[in-house]
Amino acid sequence: MTVHKIFRMTLLSLIILTVAAVGAVMAQESAQGGTQEQLAAPPATEFEGTATLGLGKYFYLPAAKGYDIYVQGMIQGQDATFLNGKEVRVKGSMFKDEPSVFVADSIEIKDAAGQYQTVFTRADEVKLENHLHTQERGGFAALAITKADKSEDWEGKGKAKVHGKLVGSTIIVTDEKGKEVGKILVDSTTEFANYYIQKLKLFDKFWFYIDIKETVDAKVRRKTRELFHADVIFAGLY
Questions:
Q1: Residue 76 lies in a domain
Q2: Does a structural domain hold residue 190?
């Protein structure tokens, strides 16, 4: 057998071994992918724990991390405030059009004997009222308010978001050095925004998503730094 033939046979063997190895790796990855798909957990449909914040139609359960639980209806004649501090078990599902909302189909409360008693069963179709959907929040441009006299900083903006501190019914806006630039007069706050303001009570400042209304008269602005009126639609850390 010539050296040339030996070389060709060796080269052919190496090619066969390489193709076989690649095929084995691809098969393994395919099998792992299939296993991962099989092991993927379905969305949770039940949570248990102590309700730490209930307001209006919303309540927060630490066990349901990442969700705001929505109650379509009344709970024994009351809103979700009724659940504050109570041990509850809630069954339901994620709202199809808003992944951060878990719709309660039933709610049970643990009694003194440690037994769960049903206090709510959903009977109505879900309608998220005054809810600012996650995908809509990106349309709120951040206001850069520099002076009380510069009404062009906010006029004509429509809906926007502003970073500030809520004091009573006023949002205090400051500059980068922490000096007060002005005050936004809050005329109304949606239930959804109120719920989030309560969730964020440990933070000194956060973002307010607002519907900008009429500007305060220029003479009054110079004297009080009250800039304009607004309705608060939502509040968040970003």
A1: yes
A2: yes
